[in-house]
Design a protein that fits this description.
By secondary structure, the protein is an alpha/beta fold. The protein folds into 3 domains: 292 residues, no CATH class; 230 residues, P-loop containing nucleotide triphosphate hydrolases (Rossmann fold); 88 residues, no CATH class. It is built from 20 helices and 25 strands. The strands form 5 sheets. It has an 11-stranded mixed beta sheet, covered by helices on one side. A hairpin with a 2-residue loop joins strand 18 and strand 19. Helix 13 runs antiparallel to helix 14. The longest helix has 22 residues.
Length: 713
C-alpha cells in the first residue's frame, strides 16, 4: 500500500475516485461538493502516519475506513505546544497484536508527548473508527477491538516504575518496547535549537524506560443512515487494569456532520471523560553527561520555548537537517540510503534500507581493485551516520587504516581504531554460547563448544581428521574443567600434556600445537567484555569503529575475524531485533568461511531477524561453490564496479540471470565502466504503489562523500 507520508506525487486521480465514493456514502450531494470533501480528506491524510490513500480507491470497506480515520484527525486538533502530536494508523504495526483475541485491534492511536521536568509525559489515545449504518453490533465489535488494543498495548509500554528501582528487572522484552516508543516519538517530534540538548536528554531517558504515560480510549462512529449534522460523545463503558479504571467514550454523529467538518471546519469532542489509566517512571534517575559528571537537570516543557525562525527548528527523525544530522545518535532506522545518481537521467538511486518489505539489509559490492569499492563503502558509512547509524568494520586487509580513509570521513565519523596488536579483543572464543527457544535457555555443552571452535581452526589451518580430533578433545576437556576461565594458554598446556603422554593422540596433538602456536603467541584475546559490541553501536562520539588487524599474518587475521563474527552472531542472536540495525563491513570476503554454519553464512540467511546488516566487498567469486554463491546472492542489493578481465563473464552472468538480458551485453557494459561508476541491482521504491520493485538496475555514479556530509561542498 502506498503510504502518503513517505512520497509526494500527483493526487488528482485518487481525489476523483474518493469523490465518487463520497457521493455514494454521503449523498445525495452535488459533484462539486463531493470534490471539495474529497480534497479536504486527502489533505488531512498527510497528518496520519502510515495511512494508505490508495486503499481508499478500492472496495467500499476501505473507503469507509479511510473517511472515518481522517475524521479522527480533523476532530483531534494538533496541539502546537507538544514535542509531538501524531495519529498513527495501526495497520503498519499489526505485529504488536499477534497475541490479540481473534486478531482484532483498533484502527488508530494518537500519540501526544510533552517534556516536563526532563521527562516525557506521553498521552496515548486508542481509537476505533466506524462509518456504517447505525447498529449496536458495530459498537460491540468496536468495544472488543478497543479492549484488545488496551490489553496488548498497556502492559508493553510500561515505564520503569516508581515502585521498581533501577536494577530490578521487569518484562524480558521491556527494552524492546521502550525503543519502539522512542522511535515513534523521536521520528515525529520537533524541538527548537534552544531546547535541543534538553530534548536529547529526555529522549535518552525515554529509551531507558524513564517516562510517564497515560491511556484513554474511544469509539468514533458516523452513521450513514442518520440524516443529521449533530455530533455528541458519552462515556459508555468502563475498563480497568491493575486497580485503575477509565471510561471508554463513544462519539457519534450523522453523515452530514462529515460534510460540515470538511467544508466548515466544524469540531467536536471525542473523549467525554478525563479518567485515565496512568503509569509513572522512577523519577530519581541519573544520567551521566559526556564529562562523566552525574546530573539531574530540570528540563523545560517542550512547548514553552520562544518561537524561533524555521531555520532553527530541528526535525527529530531519520531525515535530519543541518548539524543535528551528525550529533543525535538516535536509533530510528534509516529510511533509505543514497547510493548515487543514474547516469543519463540524474535520478537518485537508493538502498531502501528501512523499507519493511526489504528481504534483508545486506549490500554486496563487486569489482576489481582501484574501481571505487572502498570509496563507496566509506560514502555509505557517512550516509548511514547522517541518519544516526553506527557501523563496525573488521579490517583484516589493512584497507581501513586511518591513512587509507578519506580525510572528510575521518573528520565526520571520528572512527576509532581498535588495534588488536596493542589492545587484545575483549571476547572469549571458548564461551559456551546460549540459545533461547520458547523462552528456554539452552546453553552449549562442552562438546558443542569444542566442535564449533575446533571447526574454525580446522577450516583456517586445513587440519586433518586426527589433528581436528585432538584439538576437539583438548578444548572439550578445558571447557569442562575451567568453563569461562579456559583460554588459549590453557589450551596450550592441555595439548602439551597430550603430546607428552604418548598414545595415538600424541602426534596429532603435537602437530596441532605447532600450527596454532604462532596464533596463541600473538595474544589476540583479552578479558571478555560482554557489552563491548553494544558500546560500539551506541557510541555517539565515534560513529564507526574499526577492528584493526594490521600486523597479523593472514591466517591469524582470519582466525580473529572468524571468532569476532561468531561472538557478534551469538550476542545479537540473543539480544538483537530486526528494527535495530547493526551494520558490519567486511572486505575481501572471498577469504572468509562461507559454509552455511559459519557466522557469515548465518548472517546472510537469518541475520535480518536480529538486525544484522552486512556491507560486503569482493573482487572474485571463483573460489566459492554454488551453494556459497547462492547464499551470497541473497543480499537484497548489489553494486557492480568494473571487474577484472578474469571475472567479467562471471559478473555478467549474474546480471544476466537477474535482469533477463543478454550476457554479452552485460560484458560490454561492465567493461566500459569508469572509476566511481557502477551498476546498481536491487529493490527500488515504486512511487505509485509504495511497494518495492525487485531486480531493478541502474547505471549510477556514486555520490561524492563531500556532498553527503552536512556543511560539505
Amino acid at each position: 500500500n502506498f503510504t502518503i507520508s513517505t512520497e509526494k506525487f500527483s493526487m488528482v486521480d485518487i481525489k476523483q475516485k474518493i469523490s465518487s465514493q463520497v457521493s455514494v456514502l454521503l449523498g445525495p450531494i452535488e459533484s462539486d461538493t463531493a470534490d471539495k470533501i474529497a480534497d479536504s480528506l486527502v489533505r488531512e491524510a498527510t497528518h496520519i502516519s502510515g495511512l494508505s490513500v490508495v486503499k481508499a480507491t478500492g472496495p467500499m470497506k476501505f473507503v469507509r475506513e479511510f473517511i472515518a480515520n481522517i475524521m479522527a484527525r480533523k476532530l483531534l486538533v494538533r496541539q502546537k505546544d507538544c514535542f509531538c502530536d501524531e495519529i498513527i494508523a495501526l495497520d503498519a504495526f499489526s505485529h504488536w497484536f499477534k497475541d490479540a483475541d481473534d486478531g482484532m485491534r483498533p484502527d488508530l492511536i494518537r500519540l501526544r508527548a510533552r517534556i516536563v521536568d526532563g521527562y516525557f509525559n506521553i498521552d496515548v489515545q486508542v481509537i476505533e473508527c466506524k462509518l456504517a449504518q447505525q447498529s449496536e453490533q458495530h459498537l460491540e465489535t468496536a468495544r472488543q477491538q478497543i479492549e484488545n488494543g488496551l490489553k496488548e498495548l498497556i502492559p508493553r509500554f510500561r515505564p520503569h516504575e516508581v515502585n521498581r528501582p533501577p536494577g530490578i528487572k521487569g518484562a524480558p522484552d521491556e527494552r524492546y518496547w521502550w525503543m519502539q516508543m522512542h522511535r515513534l516519538i523521536a521520528s515525529k517530534g520537533t524541538t527548537t535549537m534552544a531546547d535541543y540538548k534538553d530534548t536529547l536528554m529526555a529522549l535518552e531517558r525515554l529509551s531507558e524506560g524513564y517516562f510517564n504515560i497515560s491511556w484513554q480510549a474511544a469509539v468514533l462512529a458516523f452513521w450513514t443512515d442518520l440524516e443529521t449534522d449533530s455530533f455528541n460523545s458519552n462515556s459508555e463503558w468502563n475498563y480497568g487494569m491493575e486497580g485503575q479504571e477509565m471510561d471508554i467514550s463513544v462519539a457519534s454523529g450523522g453523515k452530514h456532520f462529515i460534510r460540515k467538518a470538511c467544508l466548515e471546519n466544524a469540531g467536536g469532542k471525542i473523549f467525554s471523560s478525563d479518567r485515565k489509566i496512568e503509569f509513572q517512571s522512577y523519577k530519581n534517575h541519573v544520567i551521566k553527561k559526556d564529562d562523566g559528571v552525574e546530573q539531574e537537570t530540570g528540563v523545560k516543557p517542550a512547548g514553552k520555548a520562544e518561537t524561533v525562525e524555521m531555520d532553527n527548528e530541528i526535525l527529530i527523525s531519520g531525515e535530519m537537517v543541518g548539524q543535528s544530522e551528525k550529533t543525535t545518535g538516535f536509533k530510528s532506522l534509516p529510511p533509505r540510503i543514497l547510493l548515487g545518481r543514474a547516469i543519463g537521467t540524474n535520478r537518485e538511486v537508493f538502498w531502501e534500507f528501512g523499507h519493511p518489505d526489504l528481504a534483508n539489509r545486506h549490500l554486496l559490492v563487486f569489482g576489481a581493485s582501484g574501481t571505487g569499492k572502498t570509496y563507496t563503502i566509506q560514502a555509505l558509512l557517512c550516509e548511514l551516520a547522517r541518519h544516526g547509524q553506527n557501523s563496525l568494520i573488521v579490517d583484516y586487509t589493512n584497507g581501513f587504516t586511518t591513512n587509507q580513509l578519506e580525510s572528510p570521513v575521518v573528520h565526520y565519523l571520528h572512527p576509532e581504531q581498535h588495534v588488536i596488536r596493542l589492545e587484545p579483543l575483549a571476547i572469549n572464543p571458548f564461551r559456551q554460547q546460549c540459545e533461547v527457544i520458547d523462552d528456554i535457555d539452552l546453553p552449549e555443552d562442552p562438546a558443542n563448544t569444542a566442535q564449533r571452535v575446533s571447526g574454525v581452526f580446522a577450516e583456517v589451518y586445513q587440519l586433518g581428521d586426527q589433528q581436528k580430533s585432538a584439538l576437539y578433545n583438548a578444548i572439550r576437556q578445558g571447557v569442562s574443567q575451567e568453563s569461562l576461565d579456559f583460554n588459549l594458554v590453557s589450551l596450550t598446556k592441555i595439548l602439551e600434556n597430550m603430546s607428552g603422554s604418548g598414545g595415538p593422540a600424541a602426534g596429532p596433538a603435537a602437530s596441532v600445537l605447532t600450527k596454532i602456536q604462532p596464533f596463541i603467541d600473538m595474544n589476540p584475546f583479552g578479558r571478555e567484555d560482554p557489552e563491548s559490541w553494544e558500546k560500539i553501536y551506541n557510541d555517539q562520539n565515534s560513529q564507526s569503529h574499526i577492528i584493526q588487524l594490521a600486523g597479523f599474518m593472514k591466517d591469524t587475521a582470519r582466525l580473529i575475524t572468524e571468532f569476532s563474527l561468531i561472538d557478534l552472531y551469538w550476542y545479537y542472536r540473543a539480544t538483537g531485533n530486526k528494527d535495530d540495525a547493526k551494520v558490519i563491513v567486511l572486505d575481501e570476503i572471498q577469504n572468509l568461511d562461507h559454509r552455511l554454519d559459519s557466522p557469515l553464512g548465518q548472517f546472510l540467511t537469518e541475520g535480518r531477524k536480529f538486525g544484522i546488516s552486512l556491507i560486503l566487498a569482493t573482487q572474485t567469486l571463483s573460489n566459492l561453490n554454488k551453494d556459497e554463491r547462492d547464499r551470497l546472492f541473497q543480499a537484497s542489493h548489489k553494486l557492480f564496479f568494473k571487474p577484472a578481465d578474469t571475472e567479467i563473464k562471471s559478473f555478467a552472468g549474474i546480471l544476466a540471470d537477474a535482469t533477463g538480458e543478454n550476457q554479452e551485453d552485460w560484458v560490454t557494459r561492465l567493461s566500459l565502466l569508469k572509476r566511481g561508476e557502477c551498476y546498481s541491482l536491487g529493490c527500488a521504491l515504486n512511487a505509485k504503489t509504495g511497494n518495492l520493485d525487485v531486480n531493478k538496475w541502474f547505471k549510477i555514479r556514486v555520490t561524492e562523500i563531500e556532498k553527503r556530509i552536512p556543511g560539505g561542498s
